[in-house]
Amino acid sequence: MGMEGAVARWYASQTHKSLDEFKSLARRIAGEIAPESAVLEVAPGPGYFAIELAKLGAYRVTGLDISRTFVDIARRNAGDARVQVDFRHGDASDMPFADNSFDFLLCRAAFKNFSRPVAAIEEMYRVLKPSGRAVIMDLRRDASKASIAQLVQGMRLGAVNAAITKLTFRFLLLKRAYTRKQLEDMVAQTKFRAAKIKEDVIGFEVWLQK
């Protein structure tokens, strides 16, 4: 099921409950980048991270999502927050940007859903400036049920939404997620000159440098 219409709006309402997490991530990334950096978020969904980052400095923030519903929601959210973020509709494996456009790129909780993951990584390389960096954050395929349950508990969802979310992780998201070896193999097929994979209890961060 694509993230459009009612499904996208439900997702936006649920993830908004984790706004503190997006704020924390924005502060962390702001500490990694120079002032006025051009930053691209791939698959920003409702746009919470991109908006929080835009609040922290004079960054040129862009978001690219394949869901038209998410683009509409993100644009409204940016307007409500009174920040400038350029949310666009497009495919991660065929980005509508010129070569060497961005200093930093982030893709959070979406990479496992890409139909052409290697092509998406190649596009990340293309749109980054020389020495630009990217980070892909997503689930680990071997994340335990206990760790997923702990994650969902921290989302402060109601009983019904918590149950739905746990089932979604178990029977959909984890089945799409990758192992460390799969990620290493995919990155090896691209031109990135440096890659570092960091693992935690439920997920990974793949740091890439052009």
Provide an overview of this structure:
- With 210 residues, the protein is of the alpha/beta class.
- It has one domain: 3-Layer(aba) Sandwich (Rossmann fold).
- The protein has helices at residues 5-15, 19-30, 48-55, 68-81, 117-127, 145-153, 159-176, 180-188; strands at residues 38-42, 60-65, 85-89, 102-108, 128-139, 194-199, 203-209.
- It has a seven-stranded mixed beta sheet with strand order 3-2-1-4-5-7-6, with helices on both faces.
- The protein is globular.
- The mean pLDDT is 89.
What is the overall shape?
Answer: globular
Alpha carbon gap, first and last residue: 34 Å
Mean pLDDT: 89
Characterize the biggest β-sheet: 7 strands, mixed
CATH architecture: 3-Layer(aba) Sandwich
Q: Helix count, per DSSP?
A: 8
What would CATH call the homologous superfamily?
Answer: Vaccinia Virus protein VP39
How much beta, percentage-wise?
A: 15-25%
Question: What's the count of strands?
Answer: 7
> What proportion of the residues is helical, as a percent range?
40-55%
**Rounded radius of gyration (Å):** 16 Å
Class, according to the CATH hierarchy?
Alpha Beta
The CATH topology assignment is: Rossmann fold
* Uncertain regions spanning at least 5 consecutive residues: none
Query: Which structural category do the helix and sheet elements fall into?
Result: alpha/beta
For the biggest β-sheet, the strand order reads: 3-2-1-4-5-7-6
Tell me the number of structural domains.
1
Which series of helices and strands comes N to C? HHEHEHEEHEHHHEE
